[in-house]
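Second attempt. The first submission of tRNA dimethylallyltransferase had a stray character pasted in from the spreadsheet, which I only caught after the job came back as garbage. Lesson logged: always re-copy from the clean sequence file. Corrected sequence (478 aa) follows.
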Amino acid sequence: MKQPPLRPLVAIVGATGTGKSDLAVDIARKFNGEIINGDAMQLYRGLPVITNKITEAEMQGVPHHLLGCIGLDEETWTVGKFVGNALRVISEIRSRGRLPILVGGTHYYTQSLLFKGSLSDESLPDGEEVTMEDFAILSEPTDVILEKLREVDPVMADRWHPNERRKIQRSLELYLRTGKPASEIYNEQRKRPDTPLDQASPDIDSDLTTGTAFRFPTLVLWVHAPKDVLYPRLEARIHRMIDRGLLDEVRSLANFRISHDTSNGTPVDQSRGIWVSIGYKEFLDYQSAMSGKLEDASGLDKIKTMAIERTQAATRQYANRQLRWIRIKLLNAIWSAKQQENLFLLDGSDISRWDDLVVHPAWKITARFVSGDSLPKPTELSALARELLTPKRDYDLGRRPDLWQRRVCETCGTVAVTENDWELHRKSRGHRRAVGLKKKQENASHIRSRDLITAQTELLDVLEASLHTFAEEDCPEH
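This time the job returned cleanly.
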């Protein structure tokens, strides 16, 4: 009989609105578990509507950790700080003989926690410290941050498009935090050999080397719903958020920012942390119109409708980014760790069959995992699993600097940082239109030049003929 895994962990991933939190509670109640929040926005205190925190009633008595840890006036947690706190909580949960369950939509946090040797484990060389003054540059305009990144890490500076502020910030922040260029850290990690996880080993941590192996024996459950099902859910959720007090929280955040800016003399950095939460910035115009006591009711309704549509669009885009992270980064990392047999997709498309399609299969898989029994083959559970559980490509582009190719389109001025981006731009309608316009302009210029040359030639012919005539008249033949 197989031995149960030492220090097991269950991680639940998926796009926003797929029901991850509900499933986490169902598994926790069934297997004596406690839940660790892995959503960066839900780390902030208060603001339950904007951050979509699980309610006390929805928790059903299950302990939840790392919810509401950060005040609005505190620094945003780095991924390293999140991982350190999450590991502490996981250890405490295990000391009580309970099963830790990680759930949340910030998959960068999730992946950094799951894999030992990830970038979150990097630290400064002995004796070095980073001060808040060092990080001040991260609040500067994007072009300033990019120029600084180009000084310390030109490889990563060329990796990112000039408009990708958050990625540029992250690369520079990693350098400031570790003292090493991010590109050098990635290169070192790639050179380390893969070390598969031996779940029966009594000293699991000693078997792990880099981000290519799980930190603990881990079961990953991916709750998925296709866009045609998910989008209407997300759009309806925005209306429910408004009914639950979203606008009150927007007002509260805006008032805090004004008070902070006035008392501190420096504006809040609204490019990170709670200030980029979906539902805040989208409703600021409406909040201003309300505060200004706009008398035109129809005008106010129009502004509100636009704010709702912007929030719905931002939520859809966020869900797409989460899905891309899972399909490109997380799947490749799991396959590199040779742990694809521990990743299961659960079809959350039909809410009316939630228990049959999600909860009960998750219970069966988790029961086998925690008991040490062999797991079913993930790709055999459904057609959707067969389609989605294999990475689209066998590498993570973020860890392949040899494939980073920065190019600038001479016609459009567009910057592409990968071969795929370049090909997409070349085939785009905008590029083809710009190329066509340029050719027309060049042809027109060529025609004008040709006509000018023709005119000049004709003029010279006329002048030559005139001179010849003049010469004949001035010097008649005798």
